[in-house]
Write a structure and sequence with these properties.
The protein is mainly alpha-helical. The protein has one domain (22-311, 375-426). It has twelve helices and 14 strands. Strand 3 (88-90) and strand 4 (95-96) form a beta hairpin. The longest helix has 36 residues, at 240-275.
Length: 453
C-alpha cells in the first residue's frame, strides 16, 4: 500500500486531470491536446506501415522532445515557460502528454515531407528546419494567445516577440530539428553504407542512431545559435527578428542549392514512376497536416481567448525589483526579474479578471485569465495565411515532388507501400515550447513586440 510520501512521488512522475474540468475552464486546450495525440498516432501508423527506419524516426522525434523539455526544466537559464495542465502530466506537472508526442508529429512530418525532394545530405537538415517552422507557426501564435503555455515575463532569452511568440521559438525549432536530422541520417550513413537512408540496418545500429539523434539534436541546435544569434543579439543588441530572418535566409539558400542539384535525380525517378502508372494516394501524413491546419483556422474564427481560464504552474509571484543573472554563451551576464510582479508585468495575453484575489508572493500555482484579441481580423489574416501557405508547401513536397524513399530493403521490393485506404501499391507520401538563445532586456515598459501591443 502506498504511503503519502510514495503517493507524492508517484504524482511527480505522472498526474491525471479530468477532461471535463479542462472542457469547462480551458476548452481550446483540450482541443489542442486531443488533435495532437491523434496526429502523433497517425504518424506512428505511417511509420509502421512503411517499415524500415520510419518507426525509428518516430521514436527519435519523441526522444528529441523529451531531451529538449527535460533539459529546459532543470537549467535555470532556459527554464522560462510553463505548460497548461493537461489530461496527463509528467515531471512534476511540467510536461503534458501532448507535448511529448508533439515532436513526433512536427519533426516526423517535416523529415518525411522533405525526403521526397531527394536532397543531398548537406541540404536536407536545413530543409527540415524550414518545414518544421511552417507547421509550428500557427500553433505558436494561437497557443500562446489561448494560454496553452506562458513565458517568463522578463527573461532576456525570449524578450523579443512576434504576436507574443518569442522569435527564438522559431529559431529553436528550425535548429533543433535540423540537428536531429543531421545525426539521424549521418550515423546511419556511417554504420550502414550499403543501405538507403530510410532502410533499416538492423536493431542495434538503428537503436544507436535513434538514441544519438534524440540526444545530440539539442546541442547541435544550440551550436547554431553561435554564428548568428549570440554575436549580433547579445553583443550588439540586434533585434531577434533580424537574427531569425538571417538564419532562415541561410537555410533557404542551402535548401535551394541542394534542390537544384537533386532536380535531375527526381526527374529520373518520376520517369520510372510514370512507366509504373503511379497514382496519387492520400496517406496518414496528409491527413495529419489537414487536421493540424484546419484546427487553427477553426480556432482563430471561433475561440474566445477572454474565456480561457488556466489553472496551474506559472512564473512565481514575488518582489518586483529582485533580479537574477542570465549567463550567455559569449560570457555576457544579463539579468531578468526573479519573480512575476503582479502590479507591473508585460504579458498582454493574460490578466486576472476572472479571479477574486490576486496570487500571493511565493505562489507558483495560480489561475490566469485570457484576454480578447486586440485585432481579431489581424489574427485571422496571419493564422489563415500561415495555414494556407503551409498546406500549399506540403502539397508541393508530398504530391508534386519525387516519391517517398522506401523503407523496405533493396533485397525486398522497393516500390513503396500501400496508400491509406487503398489496396493498391504506390510510393507512400509522408515543440512550451521553449526558446533557446539570449536576449538583452529592452527599455522598461512594453516589450519590443513589433506586431501586437
Amino acid at each position: 500500500m502506498l504511503t503519502l510520501n510514495d503517493s507524492d512521488k508517484l504524482e511527480w512522475w505522472v498526474k491525471f486531470r479530468n477532461p471535463k474540468d479542462i472542457l469547462e475552464k480551458h476548452p481550446t486546450f483540450l482541443v489542442g491536446e486531443v488533435y495532437m495525440i491523434i496526429n502523433s498516432l497517425l504518424c506512428l501508423c505511417h511509420a509502421l506501415r512503411n517499415g524500415g527506419r520510419y518507426k525509428w524516426l518516430w521514436l527519435t522525434c519523441i526522444l528529441q522532445g523529451l531531451t529538449t523539455e527535460m533539459v529546459s526544466y532543470f537549467l535555470p537559464d532556459i527554464d522560462n515557460f510553463w505548460h497548461a495542465q493537461g489530461m496527463v502530466m509528467f515531471a512534476g506537472q511540467r510536461l503534458p502528454l501532448y507535448i511529448m508526442v508533439l515532436y513526433s508529429f512536427f519533426y516526423y512530418t517535416a523529415v518525411v515531407g522533405v525526403s521526397h525532394l531527394r536532397l543531398p545530405w548537406w541540404a536536407e537538415p536545413f530543409a527540415v528546419g524550414i518545414s518544421v517552422v511552417l507547421i509550428d507557426l500557427p500553433y505558436d501564435i494561437m497557443g500562446i494567445k489561448l494560454l496553452w503555455w506562458t513565458w517568463h515575463d522578463t527573461d532576456p532569452n525570449i524578450y523579443d516577440r512576434h504576436y507574443w511568440v518569442p522569435w527564438t521559438s522559431y529559431y529553436f525549432h528550425s535548429t533543433f530539428s535540423s540537428g536531429m536530422t543531421f545525426v539521424f541520417y549521418g550515423v546511419h550513413k556511417l554504420l550502414a553504407k550499403n543501405e538507403d537512408k530510410l532502410q533499416s540496418a538492423g536493431f542495434f545500429k538503428e537503436a544507436l542512431a535513434c538514441v544519438l539523434a534524440g540526444i545530440l539534436g539539442m546541442p547541435l541546435g544550440v551550436i547554431q545559435f553561435l554564428p548568428v544569434y549570440h554575436p549580433l543579439h547579445d553583443s550588439n543588441n540586434v533585434h531577434t527578428e533580424v537574427c531569425v530572418f538571417l538564419q532562415m535566409s541561410v537555410y533557404v539558400m542551402i535548401t535551394w542549392a541542394g534542390d537544384r542539384q537533386a532536380a535531375a535525380k527526381r526527374h529520373e525517378l518520376q520517369g520510372k514512376e510514370k512507366e509504373k502508372k503511379k497514382k496519387f494516394s492520400f496517406n496518414e501524413i496528409m491527413l495529419a497536416l489537414l487536421i493540424h491546419y484546419c484546427v487553427y483556422i477553426f480556432l482563430v474564427f471561433t475561440a474566445k481567448p477572454e474565456n480561457q481560464v488556466a489553472d496551474g504552474l506559472h512564473e512565481t509571484i514575488g518582489p518586483c525589483q529582485e533580479t537574477t543573472p542570465v549567463y550567455t554563451a559569449f560570457g555576457h551576464v544579463l539579468e531578468k526579474h526573479k519573480y512575476l510582479c503582479v502590479e507591473k508585468y508585460d504579458e498582454a495575453v493574460f490578466d486576472f479578471h476572472c479571479v477574486k484575489n490576486l496570487p500571493k508572493p511565493g505562489e507558483s500555482w495560480y489561475t490566469i485569465c485570457g484576454t480578447k484579441f486586440p485585432n481579431h481580423l489581424e489574427y485571422i489574416v496571419i493564422v489563415c495565411g500561415a495555414c494556407m501557405f503551409g498546406m500549399a508547401y506540403y502539397w508541393q513536397l508530398l504530391v508534386c515532388s519525387g516519391s517517398q524513399p522506401s523503407g523496405s530493403s533493396s533485397k525486398s521490393s522497393g516500390s513503396g507501400s500501400k496508400s491509406l485506404g487503398s489496396g493498391s501499391k504506390s510510393s507512400g507520401s509522408s515543440p512550451k515550447p521553449s526558446g533557446s538563445g539570449q536576449k538583452s532586456p529592452g527599455p522598461k515598459g512594453k516589450k519590443k513586440d513589433i506586431k501586437q501591443q
